[in-house]
Amino acid sequence: MSAVAHSGPGGLLETDTRLRLLLIEDDAADAFLFEELISESEPDVEITVARTLGEALRSLTPGIQCVIVDLSLPDAAGLDVLRQVLKATPYTAVLVLTGLADAHVGVAAVGAGAQDYLVKQDVDGPLLSRAIRYAIERKRADESERQLVEARILGRENARLERGLLPVPILADPAIGHDARYRPGRDRALLGGDFYDTVQVEDGTVHGVIGDVSGHGADEASLGVRLRMAWRTLVLAGHTGSPLLRTLDTVLCHERWSDEIFTTLCMFALDPDRRSLRVWRAGHPRPLLFTPDGVRALPDEHCGPALGLLPGLDWPVAHVDLGEHWSLMLYTDGLIEGYSGNDDGERLDLDGLLELAAAAHTRGDRGRALLDGLIGEAERRNGDVLSDDLALLLLSRGEMR
To answer: What is the tally of structural domains in the chain?
Structure first.
């Protein structure tokens, strides 16, 4: 009946009905009695017996669901035994064995983190089986509650940080609609390497940017925030166009931790008449323009290299006539790198996005509904949530709002 068992979060949450136990007991007679008692009610059980704390700590590998521990061992005693076991296996249920004269120690052990205690002289097979099962279920419930509390705390903290790190647009023109969506690709991440911003300056020009730092992780997210703040500062100082991008390229080269790090970026300057637009692209996907006549991607011929690749170059400008009613959508490649939903395994890419956008335009989607609809349909075709960082920025005017 002896077997090597395992300890860890995986063991606690296993659905297998077989019990996998570690008994820490230096008395061979008591260990034999324990095995006999548990086999009365649990014939399908695996037990590892350790006679010292050191031997027990070496036996704690993933899979053990419950540790039953005597607090009087040759190499440790009292609550110190329990503390070391709990430290070594924080996700596993722990049941403490005591003698008649040490029942108060069992109460203290529960206060220190054990799920329950048993007095050796009062134990029979059914009671032992119920106590072990109860300890496992209680530990599972405690772990679920801990994760729930952690998620709530993380959610509140993320909300506070997002208010400080995600941009609040500086936009004074009530005729312009502004909508954005942002979602990091990493689980539980607050920010990804994507960024966006919108700033209206004194002459009425509205500047906007969207960018994507290569890679995924906290470092990329931090660099994205720094680039966005540098961009906003440069715009408010009166810079625009290729000179601004050269300065931002210099900032990137000084702030990055590796020469392999680059950033794709698209920025625009919406003229005060709101009928014309200047666009600069640095290796970034083409924006979409929605008008009453339909949807199209902005021309591809005006595009320079991503920031961080070829310092000192100029980025060409594209001039776009908007008309009276329009929506301009900028996005990062997280929106188009999911699967297209076809059996050929192709990516959505620009052609697929144009197809989705045309359908949304036909439905009359506007503003937030347009962005949410495009993300939802891209995820449906992908067969799962989009795994990459994702940012969308939409400016609208007239009947396209």
So the answer is: 2
